[in-house]
């Protein structure tokens, strides 16, 4: 379907210089990224989790910026019909389109300005992440900590999805807001549950943050419950945004992407500078997910050791207890930050090593050369394991990763035999449990573990 839409809020009033900047960028090298992200937003609810297939299915889709006296409009052609109701685009999807415009075109240009951000330093990268989040109006001062980050897979069972809604409901009853990767499955369920909890408690300011990045958005199209969407430039900055804005993290069952997120956070918490910093981390799911978390726990024990296991607790089939533990943990976070003068809305005190911030490009060469051995500090091993799972995600659902696999064959993952055995077992369990692709789709592994 074709339409033209106008922005609301911050992008409703733009200077002539800003309009010209948007026009220049949209017709330059950023256009393809802008187009693919916009198409992903419009494709919400389609059941498609393949970035390459999405682009090929809508080859005639086009989106362009139309300049007018009062600012801009977006001219959309060949959009998926599911984004419309009676010929009118769904309001939440309209908002998400302008979030794409704001972040991909406007903010990308600013972050690329070396005079403003030194992306060669850890401080410069964190400052850039802060700037993107602030520009998206995600950071709220004078608000007590209450943001719960929920991680988990887009391909989960019906029982697991229902459980994520129950946990979200319990969190909503306690006034907690929700932040997820913004897609379907375990990213949508907690938000859906929280809206009911908020409604019962007459919370009218509930916040449902969706944090994504260009490479993954096509596979995890933002669900319309998200009322604050932000697109970070890459997966590393996306992960940093999660742990900087979140006051607690709840992990539901998932696949390689969820393993990547777990390893990222554990690697950060294992850094000596973060030893005293409170960061509630809970793994949870229904009774049917007990074996899943047992496998995750065994993998962490075999690779990162018992110190890593101390940083989380596993709660099975008890949504109320999960919410109670989160609530109690966030109280400790508030006390800690208040005592040290740290902001409630952005965790500046959290030490993030440069190895967790450097963008990792999952090429075949880079995947082969990952340092997956125990002859290094544990938090650095976690960083490299995170990269390995990031590569698997790219090969599964990201456009560039899928094309690289088609051209060059499987990614080869090499390392210590014990680590490789544990990784192979965990990945095989994800495949057996249909966690790599949406149900009903045959999965062909994009990787080969070399033991």
TrEMBL record:
Domain annotation Pyrimidine/purine nucleotide 5'-monophosphate nucleosidase N-terminal: ranges: 3-110
Q: What is the lineage of its organism?
A: Bacteria, Pseudomonadati, Pseudomonadota, Betaproteobacteria, Burkholderiales
Query: What PANTHER family is this protein classified in?
Result: CYTOKININ RIBOSIDE 5'-MONOPHOSPHATE PHOSPHORIBOHYDROLASE, PYRIMIDINE_PURINE NUCLEOTIDE 5'-MONOPHOSPHATE NUCLEOSIDASE
Catalysed reactions, as listed in the record: AMP + H2O = D-ribose 5-phosphate + adenine
The EC number of this protein is 3.2.2.4
Species per Swiss-Prot/TrEMBL record: Undibacterium hunanense
Its name, as the record gives it, is: AMP nucleosidase
- Gene3D superfamilies per UniProt: 3.40.50.450, MoCo carrier protein-like
Domain Pyrimidine/purine nucleotide 5'-monophosphate nucleosidase C-terminal positions? 330-450
Task: Name the domain of life.
Answer: Bacteria
């Amino acid at each position: 379907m074709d339409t033209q839409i106008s922005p609301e809020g911050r992008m409703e009033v733009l200077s002539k210089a800003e309009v010209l900047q948007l026009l220049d960028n949209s017709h330059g090298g950023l256009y393809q990224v802008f187009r693919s992200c916009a198409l992903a937003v419009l494709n919400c609810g389609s059941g498609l989790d393949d970035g390459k297939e999405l682009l090929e299915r809508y080859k005639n889709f086009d989106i362009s910026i139309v300049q007018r006296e009062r600012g801009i409009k977006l001219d959309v052609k060949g959009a998926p019909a599911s984004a419309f109701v009676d010929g009118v685009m769904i309001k939440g999807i309209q908002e998400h389109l302008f979030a794409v415009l704001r972040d991909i075109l406007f903010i990308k240009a600013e972050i690329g300005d070396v005079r403003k951000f030194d992306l060669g330093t850890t401080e410069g990268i964190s400052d850039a992440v802060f700037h993107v989040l602030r520009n998206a109006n995600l950071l709220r001062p004078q608000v007590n900590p209450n943001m719960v980050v929920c991680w988990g897979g887009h391909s989960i069972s019906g029982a697991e999805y229902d459980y994520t809604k129950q946990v979200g409901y319990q969190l909503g009853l306690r006034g907690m807001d929700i932040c997820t990767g913004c897609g379907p499955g375990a990213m949508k369920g907690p938000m859906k549950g929280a809206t009911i909890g908020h409604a019962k408690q007459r919370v009218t300011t509930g916040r449902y943050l969706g944090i994504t990045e260009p490479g993954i958005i096509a596979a995890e199209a933002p669900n319309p419950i998200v009322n604050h969407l932000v697109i970070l430039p890459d997966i590393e900055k996306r992960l940093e945004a999660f742990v900087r804005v979140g006051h607690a993290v709840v992990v539901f069952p998932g696949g390689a992407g969820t393993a990547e997120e777990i390893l990222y956070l554990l690697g950060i918490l294992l850094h000596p500078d973060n030893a005293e910093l409170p960061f509630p981390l809970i793994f949870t799911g229904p009774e049917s997910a007990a074996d899943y978390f047992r496998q995750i726990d065994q993998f962490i024990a075999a690779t990162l050791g018992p110190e890593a296991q101390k940083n989380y607790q596993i709660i099975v089939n008890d949504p109320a207890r999960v919410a109670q533990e989160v609530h109690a943990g966030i109280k400790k976070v508030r006390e800690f930050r208040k005592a040290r003068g740290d902001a409630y809305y952005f965790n500046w005190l959290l030490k993030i090593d440069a190895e967790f911030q450097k963008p990792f490009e999952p090429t075949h060469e880079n995947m082969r050369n990952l340092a997956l051995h125990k002859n290094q500090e544990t938090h650095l091993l976690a960083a490299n394991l995170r990269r390995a799972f990031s590569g698997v995600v790219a090969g599964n659902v990201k456009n560039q990763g899928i094309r690289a696999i088609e051209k060059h064959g499987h990614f080869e993952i090499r390392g210590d035999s014990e680590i490789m055995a544990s990784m192979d077992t965990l990945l095989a369990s994800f495949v057996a449990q249909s966690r790599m692709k949406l149900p009903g789709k045959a999965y062909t592994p994009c990787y080969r573990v070399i033991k």
